[in-house]
Structures are given as C-alpha cells and as structure tokens.
Design a protein that fits this description.
The complex is a heterodimer of chains A (about 325) and B (about 425). Chain A has about 325 residues and is an alpha+beta fold. Chain A is about 45% helix and about 15% strand. Chain A has two domains: about 100 residues, Tumour Suppressor Smad4, CATH 2.60.200.20; about 150 residues, no CATH class. In chain A, strands 2-1-11-10-7-8 form a six-stranded antiparallel β-sheet, with no helix packed on it. In chain A, strands 4-3-5-6-9 form a five-stranded mixed β-sheet, with no helix packed on it. In chain A, a hairpin with a 5-residue loop joins strand 1 and strand 2. With about 425 residues, chain B is an alpha+beta fold. Chain B has two domains: about 230 residues, Beta Barrel (Thrombin, subunit H); about 190 residues, no CATH class. In chain B, the strands form five sheets. In chain B, strands 2, 3, 4, 5, 6, 7, 8 and 9 form an eight-stranded antiparallel β-sheet that branches. Chain B has a seven-stranded antiparallel β-sheet with strand order 18-19-22-26-25-24-23, sandwiched between helices. The longest helix of chain B is centred in the middle third of the chain and has 22 residues. The two termini of chain B are about 35 Å apart. The chains are: A alpha+beta (about 325), B alpha+beta (about 425). Strand 12 of chain A pairs parallel with strand 23 of chain B, so a sheet runs across the interface.
C-alpha cells in the first residue's frame, strides 16, 4: 500500500459523489470536526471508524465508538480488510478507500459519434419526420383533401415528436447534464420510419405470399419498434448500461404485447387485431397462386365443428341488441 | 326494415301516439263499423306479456276468441317472449269489460306469424274460421279490430287490396289505419267473416298495412286440434319451423334463375324476384377522386323470431370502386378500408356464437379474388347458422369489385351452397 490514500463517498449506483485525498494513515472518519474525513450524515457518530494498515500490511477499517457500526454486505463488522473494491457503509454513507497504487481497468472504446450532435441530427430528424408524415398522409388521402389537411396532420405529428423528445432530453439533462435533443429527435424519426416500413413490409409480404395471419398481429411489431426506440433513447442518456437497458426494452415490449392481447381479447373475444386480412394491394404484388373455390369451401366446411362447439358454451355479460319493433 | 310489427313496446308507445295523431286522421266509423264492433266486442281481447318478476307489462297485442270455444288467435310476435323465455315472461288477457285472466300458449306458426292460446272464458261464436273461406275482391271493405297503443279497444275501416307478393309468405294488403297494439286482432268483412289477422304496417307509407290470410289460421287451428298437449319447449318448435322455412327458401331461390348485372367490366350474379328486390346506387356525381357504383338486393321480408332476431333472409351487395384521380397506392388504401371492419357479429351476443372465418386468395376460373367467409351458429336453435361471404377482385390495381352476401337462418349445407353460387358466379366480361 502506498500513500496517498483516497476516501470516496459513493452513490447507491456506484458513482463517486465525493473524493478526498489523504496523505497519511490512520484516517479517522466521523461527524466530528477532529476527524480526517468528516461525514455529513446524522446516522454516524462523532468518531465512527478509522482506516489503518492491518497486521498483514493491507488496509483495514475498524469500528471506533460508532452507534450504528460498519455495515458490509448487510452484516455489522467491527473490523474488516479493504481491497480497493470493498464498499462499506457508515450510517447512510457508502464508502470505498483506495491507495495510490490501485490498478484501474482499461479504458473502454469510445463509440459515440461526437460529430453527430446538435443541429445535424436534429435537422435530419426533422426532415425525416416531415417526409414520412407527408407520405403517409398522402397514401391515406383517398378523398382529395385540401393542403391544409396535410399541414394539420404535420403540425400534430411534430408536436408529438417535440413532446416525446423533450421528455427524453429532460431526462438526459437530469442524469447526464446535457440535453442532446438533436440525437433524441433523430432516434424518434428513425422509429417512425421503422414503424411505417414494418407495416408496409408486413402488408406486402402477407399479400404476396398469402400469409394472412401476419396482418392480424402487426401491432406487436409496432410495440417492439417502440421498445427499440426507448432502448436507443436510454443508451443515449447513459451508454454505460446497454445490457440492462436492452433487457428492460425486451421486457417492456413483452409487457406491451401482453396488454394488447388482453385488450383485444376483452373487446373482441380473440387475440388477433382483426377477423380477416383487409389489405387489398395490386396484382403485381401477388407471388403465390390462387386456390380453387373448392378448396375454399372445404375450409369453410371445417368451421362447422368450431361454431357448434361454441354454441354449447355459456357466455357471461352477454349483450342483446336493443331494438324495438 | 321499413315494416313495423304491430306490437306495442311500452317505451315507444307515447312517441308513436303523437306521430300517429299527426299523420293519420281516422275516418268516421260507418254504421257497419258500429254494428260490427258491438257484435264483436265480447270476443275481442287484449293480450299482455308480463315480466314474471313484478308482473309489469313488457308488450301488448290483441287477439280474438274463435267460435264458442276457449281458443284465442293472435300473432306469434305478440307471444314470442313467452315462447322463447317462459321462465321470464307470462301472459295475461284483458277483455272489453276489463276482466283479466291467465293465458296458455298452445301452438305457434313463426313463418306466418300466428299463435293460438287458451284462456278461461269462452267465445260467443262471432268469429269463425270455417273450412270454406270467404273470397275477397279488391276494394272490398274490411274492418280491423284491436287495442291500438294500449289506449282501448277500437275498430278501423279500410279496403282489401290484394295479396302482397313482396313478402315470402302471402299477406293481404289492407289499406286502412292499424296501429301498434292491434297485432293479432282480426280483420273482418262487413258481414263479420274473418279475412285475416292484423300483423304489420309500412312506416314509410300512409295506411299501408298487412294481414295474415285466414287460411293459415285455419291450418294452425287444425294442428292444435290434432295435438294432445302443447309442446313443452317452444324453442324446439320454433327451430323446427325455421328449418322448414330455410328449406323452402332454398328451394324457391334455386328455382329463381340468377340474373347477371354489369358493373364496369365485371358481371355479378343476383337473384331478382318479387321477394328479392334490387336497388342501385352510384356516387358518380359527387366530387370524389374515385367512383363507386353498387347493386344491392335483399329480401324485403324476414321471419320475426324475437324483438332481437329476424332471420331467414338473403341479401346481396356488389360494389365497384374505380380510381379516377387516385394513384395505385392511394387506391389500395381506399379498397382496403372499404373491405375492412365489415360487421359480421360480436363475441358476447346472446343470440349467436362468435363468428368463425376462413379466408383465401381464390380463383373461380374467371376472376381472381380474395374471399372471406364467416359463420355464426344460433345459440337457441340447433342446425341454424348465419353466413357472410365477402369477396374482392384482385385483378386490377385501380379498380376493385367488392361483394357481400349475407344469408341468415339457414342450414350449414344451404348456407355454403348459396355462398358458392355467388362466388362462382362473379366474372369479368370480355369488354374491358
């Protein structure tokens, strides 16, 4: 062990809140002003603990005359050896002690695109949102709408984006000290494009290959895309926890899909979002061959067993249509 | 539905009264009407359906005692709640003197909308249904009796105007005022012979009312005479009659040749007859970037089973959408939206099971299409189903022919047979 020594107060998530250099041992710790390291914690005593070299030459912490003691891994200790990674608690304060010869880990690779901050991603995101929104309004405009209709939808979409990205920027500012609005807007715009592209892809695939079931569950893909967006927003705020955030996003996506399934079952009695595929695209999209009418009616024949089985089931909360004749 | 059955549902009663007073001026009864009423009033009854719990009335209609016995003829739709839900509803009669008593349902004829009940008083012999029925001539006076809108017994005068061919089963057209609550009451000739039983009227016309011909009353009374005891479960009897109806309907449809209508380049099959009437519709004059034209054919009558269920009916709709200014992708959105969310029944319906569907890209050899067929079973009536066939042409990028055929209250076999006739009948003509 070589001087100097550093006493660090850690936050619960492991971040260093306060660090003090001390050149000699022993280091007296407590609330009193005659200590080497003063704790501003009402749950610690005037003289709480002392750091000194043990018999084996390693650093150790000893209880002096504390009320609440030294807590390590949930148990109270009167004396314990410290290896530079040991975190112990005095009152409500988490403490780590390292000496000057503590070997720190290697630097992690910098994967952040520092040039992609501020205006460039903000402007790109804005342009993408405008283009995708206008394209999707145009596609669904079957009644020859006035231009103001396009502007209204665009304004609404941009407002939603500003609120969404504003929220993430605020969180970014709170936790990391910078807003990074441009980055968040770009992520949201990519999410929007991904969701439009996914619903297109699903429709075209279902129509081309007669895979009708795909369209019945397309909203789950959208849930997954939103979860993906949330993951990228979180990683933008704190790139240090990618695995934790990925897990959270996967869980959120599963939870979202579960809720969708339950809502669908409650309102329509089935898990799929629609009873049959309604997409009608154009002939050149079709890649598989049409079936003969005989096969279609053979399948219809098979429905009889299903409805007959339903007939015998009791229903709860049934509704009879109300009409007066 | 433009036809209203003459059953007074209590809640709508007041509104109907005002409407009726505004629209229809009752003609002054003639001396024959006064004479007929005084002779008939002893045999005229009001029939009420009451909730067992609390004995509050749920609906009211009329009825009349036959001969000197204790049998009363009325409409099935007056008694339908007692037939289908005897555990909840019970019947009661009230005569012109205000005497009340219980009602026992003996037989129903759902198809012609008739019922026979037994009560604890006997008739005077004024109303008779002989083997030889009176021949009616168009324009002849008829007198309709009953208790309109639960206001009191009344007689109204009108004219017989022939047999209506629009309904599936024969009905007589009576040009005279009959109102809700007179359902099940008799309509008699000037000499007191029963011509028919009041059943319904058109809401979109003036004084256009309908009677069930007395020959069906005669047939039902014969059936009552032959049966040892009334059916224990009227639902079974109703279900059996509905099955008979769908078989008759199928037979009649098969004897009606399909007519083909031109919709753009497509030829679409419809059945057009007195019972199945077709109407056309087009949006071509509207300011839209596409045109839509439609042919829809539907049976004008359906079988009344309960206030919530009318069945035994076929309706057909073909619609062509053509883009005039829309691009291919925009037109796809339009066609998909029109094909989407077509109601085929809910999942918490007490009458039907949730719909089960199958869908496929099919070709009938003449046209490639997307086809969807959905089926629901009737919960109360075995062997009866509702079918919905949806189809959309897939041969053009800026034109879509979409069809919908609804077949209600049929056997599984007949439902599929009708659906198949339509799916196979749609084609594209040689002219583009």
């Amino acid at each position: 062990m070589s001087a100097p020594y550093f006493v660090e107060v850690l936050a619960r998530n492991g971040e260093v809140k306060q660090r003090q250099r001390l050149d000699t041992l022993p280091i007296r710790i407590g609330r009193g002003y005659d200590n080497d390291f003063i704790l501003d914690d009402r749950h610690t005593s005037a003289h709480d603990a002392v750091i000194a070299l043990g018999a084996d030459g390693a650093l150790e912490v000893r209880d002096v005359e504390s009320r609440n003691g030294i807590i390590h891994k949930g148990g109270r200790q009167t004396q314990m050896t410290l290896d530079g990674n040991t975190i112990f608690r005095l009152g409500h304060t988490n403490i780590r002690v390292r000496s000057a010869d503590f070997a720190v880990s290697d630097a992690i690779a910098d994967t952040t695109f520092h040039g992609w901050e501020g205006w460039p991603p903000a402007l790109t995101g804005f342009v993408l949102v405008v283009l995708v929104t206008l394209a999707s309004v145009w596609m669904t405009d079957t009644e020859k709408s006035e231009p103001v209709h396009y502007l209204t939808v665009l304004a609404a979409m941009l407002s939603v984006m500003v609120f969404w990205c504003g929220g993430w920027s605020l969180a970014n500012r709170l936790f990391e000290g910078q807003t990074r609005f441009g980055r968040h807007l770009f992520i949201a715009a990519c999410g929007l494009i991904a969701s439009e592209a996914a619903s297109f892809l699903i429709s075209f695939t279902a129509y081309a290959f007669s895979l009708e079931a795909l369209t019945r569950y397309d909203n789950h893909v959208l849930v997954a895309i939103v979860a993906g967006m949330v993951y990228f927003h979180l990683v933008t705020i704190n790139p240090g926890h990618t695995r934790r955030f990925a897990l959270a996003a996967i869980l959120a996506s599963l939870l979202g899909s579960g809720v969708l399934l339950m809502v669908s079952y409650q309102t329509s009695g089935r898990f799929s979002s629609e009873l049959y595929m309604s997409e009608l695209l154009f002939p050149s999209v079709r890649l598989t061959s049409d079936k003969p009418v005989t096969e279609f009616f053979a399948n219809a024949e098979k429905l009889k067993a299903k409805v007959d089985a339903e007939r015998s089931k009791k229903i709860s909360n049934g509704v009879e249509e109300d009409n007066q004749d | 539905m433009r036809i209203i059955l003459l059953l007074t549902a209590w809640l709508v009663c007041v509104a109907t009264v005002t409407a009726a007073e505004d629209q229809v001026k009752l003609p002054t009864p003639s001396s024959s009407a006064q004479r007929l009423y005084s002779l008939a009033k002893g045999d005229l009854l009001q029939l009420r359906v009451l909730l067992k719990n609390g004995r509050t009335q749920s609906s009211v209609g009329s009825g009349f005692l036959i001969g000197t016995g204790n049998l009363v003829v009325t409409n099935y739709h007056v008694m339908s709640q007692i037939a289908l839900e005897p555990e909840t509803y019970v019947g009661e009669y009230v005569d012109t003197h205000g005497k009340r008593g219980p009602v026992e349902l003996l037989a129903v004829d759902v198809l012609h909308d008739l019922a026979v009940v037994r009560i604890d008083i006997k008739g005077s012999g004024f109303f008779n249904v002989p083997e030889q029925l009176p021949a009616l001539t168009q324009g002849q006076y008829l007198y309709s009796l009953g208790n309109p809108l639960d206001l009191g017994f009344a007689i109204s005068e009108g004219a017989y105007n022939g047999i209506v061919s629009r309904s599936f089963y024969d009905q007589l057209m009576f040009t005279g005022p009959i109102n809700a609550g007179m359902s099940g009451g008799p309509s008699v000739t000037v000499d007191g012979r029963v011509a028919g039983v009041n059943v319904s009227k058109r809401l979109d016309g003036e004084l256009v009312s309908f009677l069930v011909p007395v020959r069906y009353v005669r047939d039902l009374l014969k059936r009552v005479a032959e049966q040892d005891h009334p059916p224990k479960d009227f639902k079974l009897a109703v279900g059996k009659q509905l099955l008979e109806h769908q078989a008759a309907m199928m037979k009649r449809l098969e004897n009606t040749p399909l007519t083909f209508k031109e919709l753009g380049p497509y030829r679409v099959p419809v059945w057009e007859s007195d019972q199945l009437r077709c109407w056309g519709w087009s949006n071509s004059k509207q300011d839209k970037p596409y045109t839509a034209e439609q042919v829809s054919c539907a049976m004008e009558s359906a079988i009344f089973v309960s206030g919530q269920m009318q069945t035994g009916r076929v309706s057909i709709r073909h619609k062509i959408l053509r883009a005039t200014e829309l691009g291919t992708l925009q037109f796809s959105t339009l066609a998909s939206n029109q094909f989407k969310n077509q109601s085929v029944g809910g999942h918490k319906d007490l009458r039907f099971t949730p719909p089960q569907c199958t869908e496929q890209f099919v070709s009938n050899g003449k046209l490639p299409m997307r086809a969807v067929i959905c089926v629901s079973a009737y919960r109360k009536f075995p062997e009866l189903y509702d079918f919905t066939l949806l189809s959309a042409s897939t041969d053009e990028s800026r034109m879509s022919l979409q069809s919908r055929v609804d077949i209600s209250g049929v056997s599984y076999e007949n439902g599929l047979r009708i659906a198949r006739i339509f799916l196979e009948g749609i084609s594209r003509g040689s002219q583009p």
